[in-house]
């Protein structure tokens, strides 16, 4: 199949207006049947809360309101529109079968206060998903409660702390590589640990000699991402685990990058003691605005007594139930049992793929990242030539000579119909372009992406000013991202 290149423009199609500007008196998008009950005096009923003047409300027809909201929905980007190569985030397709299963009446209408006796199906889902994830990670036990990856990290370190306290020696430090995701040091600090930075070696991996010299009896754990945030597999992971264990420390694995490992290797087999999974990354549940997230934490036997309660257990009468009486537990970390709807989706994904399908998924994700790497090598600088797993990290070194940075290239990519890659992370790569296609993308879509990236590199040579002013096709161009997060404007007000 020959692909039609996506052409970028520098022109916005201004076919929209505010719904308030479309208003004209007397129009309505609704029609009610005649009143068949006695009319009430709303002033009497509502007192001071009664409002006769509804202010400046738009009056529009049904088709106008439908067009308005449908148009707004197209101003955002989604995995359902095209490739979403946001590195480290594993923005894979959310299969529709997951949605169908999660809407089954018995699951969608279940209530957390329902008696266990009539919750056996829901409990079976918690148990089966737990068993699958334990098998996939090679660990011994799991909690599904945490609501996201960062919350999983927090829960995991609470377990680490409880473990060391039970040994009578509360250690003070957590070691974290300089390539780590920002949530890792933030989590360690939140749990009350001091963070000690570990420098990466020239291949972008943990410097094992440096680790050996930094490891001592004051270190509670090493938080390690594998493959790390450069998309590189830490192949000395066994040595790393041995160094930690020899001095009584634990190995925490940030499992955000499990999309490179599922069905191939198991963290439990390479010495990991505790790890989180991101169901909204690896296990295809919606990510971002479509959430909520889910960050199960899997552990080895030594940490099992500290897991949050309640824990799903098989009772002596053959039914499933919740166990609350666990004296060493760190307690609850989330209301009820976690984000149940996500467990249904993740289990649907896992069972639909099966062991061979999950392995194939991993292989395709790695193949896709390497296809993009080959397509863009030479066009963009590759700071670490170490083999890539499920994502590849370039830098803007070549384009920076023209004054164009990773953020500018990412903004121009929007004009080509793609969501940007991850910019400026990991921190050990100045001007990083972090690209993760996931297994969801076809060769055709990746070819379009590679063409777009090559085309932008040419534009940088010929007309850097145009790239610096991108995006040109969006309703708003460059936003103040800090103000947008800190002081969001969520409501239109008449001026
Ligand atoms: C996404 C991510 C996290 C945090 O996970 P959330 O679910 O967003 O809280 C942590 N570490 C890495 C490497 C990640 O990519």
UniProtKB/TrEMBL annotation:
GO terms for cellular component: cytosol; glycine cleavage complex. Its EC number is 1.4.4.2. The modification N6-(pyridoxal phosphate)lysine is found at residue 281. The keyword GTP-binding does not apply. InterPro entries: GcvPB (IPR023012), GDC-P_C (IPR049316), GDC-P_N (IPR049315), GDC_P (IPR020581), PyrdxlP-dep_Trfase (IPR015424), PyrdxlP-dep_Trfase_major (IPR015421), PyrdxlP-dep_Trfase_small (IPR015422). Residues 59-317 form the Glycine cleavage system P-protein N-terminal domain. GO terms for biological process: glycine decarboxylation via glycine cleavage system. Keywords: Oxidoreductase, Pyridoxal phosphate. It holds the Pfam family GDC-P. It catalyses: N(6)-[(R)-lipoyl]-L-lysyl-[glycine-cleavage complex H protein] + glycine + H(+) = N(6)-[(R)-S(8)-aminomethyldihydrolipoyl]-L-lysyl-[glycine-cleavage complex H protein] + CO2. Residues 362-462 form the Glycine dehydrogenase C-terminal domain. GO terms for molecular function: glycine binding; glycine dehydrogenase (decarboxylating) activity; pyridoxal phosphate binding. Its cofactor is pyridoxal 5'-phosphate. It comes from the Bacteria. The glycine cleavage system is composed of four proteins: P, T, L and H. In this organism, the P 'protein' is a heterodimer of two subunits. Belongs to the GcvP family. C-terminal subunit subfamily. NCBIfam families: PRK04366.1 (NF003346). The glycine cleavage system catalyzes the degradation of glycine. The P protein binds the alpha-amino group of glycine through its pyridoxal phosphate cofactor; CO(2) is released and the remaining methylamine moiety is then transferred to the lipoamide cofactor of the H protein. HAMAP family: GcvPB. This is Probable glycine dehydrogenase (decarboxylating) subunit 2. It comes from Candidatus Sulfotelmatobacter kueseliae.
